[in-house]
Amino acid sequence: MATQEETYIGIMIQSLEKKTRVLDEIIRWDEKQKEVLENPEATPDEFDETVDAKSTLIEQLEQLDSGFEKLYERVQQEMKDNKEAHKVEIKKLQGLIRGITDRSVQIQAQEARNKELMTLKFARIKSQAKQIRANAGATAKYYQSMSRANLIDPQFLDNKQ
């Protein structure tokens, strides 16, 4: 029969495995976000969808981290005192943590690239909006001047010869 500490360690392993899957999902959504940012036809709703999905996943990560920390506090001393007895589990935990660290670095790099793409996209949108306003102003002036062109000032016509 497993001790309480062994059960906690098993739950910690499951928690890290779930965190790995959540990070993989974030990576997938980061890729989708990159595609949306690179697509000039993409709508703001498509971008919002990626942000919302990632926000939900980040909340899950926070819950997993919180639960993991609480469990680790309970078994930390046991794992230090009996390293040999928990050798397999410790190795498994270390491997999972390495994988999580690698994924976290990958996510940070992609987030930085996406931020740069977003900055460029917003600058392009701002430029387009400025151009549209300028064109609208020019069009209004054109119509205004054309409406005046059709007006003929009253003239005096001298019929004497």
Question: Your description of this structure?
Answer:
With 161 residues, the protein is an all-alpha fold. Helices cover 84% and strands 0% of the residues. The protein is built from 3 helices and no strands. It has helices spanning 4-38, 44-81, 87-149. Helix 1 packs antiparallel against helix 2 and helix 1 runs parallel beside helix 3. The longest helix is centred in the last third of the chain and has 63 residues, at 87-149. It is rod-shaped, with a radius of gyration of 32 Å. The mean pLDDT is 86.
Tags for this entry?
single chain; mainly alpha
From the alpha carbons, calculate the radius of gyration and give it in angstroms: 32 Å
Number of strands: 0
- How much of the sequence is in beta strands? under 5%
| Assembly state of the chains shown | single chain
- Low-confidence segments, ≥5 residues, pLDDT <50? none
| Helical percentage | over 70%
How do the helices and strands follow one another from N- to C-terminus? HHH
By secondary-structure content and strand pairing, the structural class works out as mainly alpha
| Tally of helical segments | 3
How do the helices and strands line up, and which of them pair or pack?
Layout: H1 4-38, H2 44-81, H3 87-149
Helix pairs in contact: 1-2, 1-3
Short recap of the structure:
By secondary structure, the protein is mostly helical.
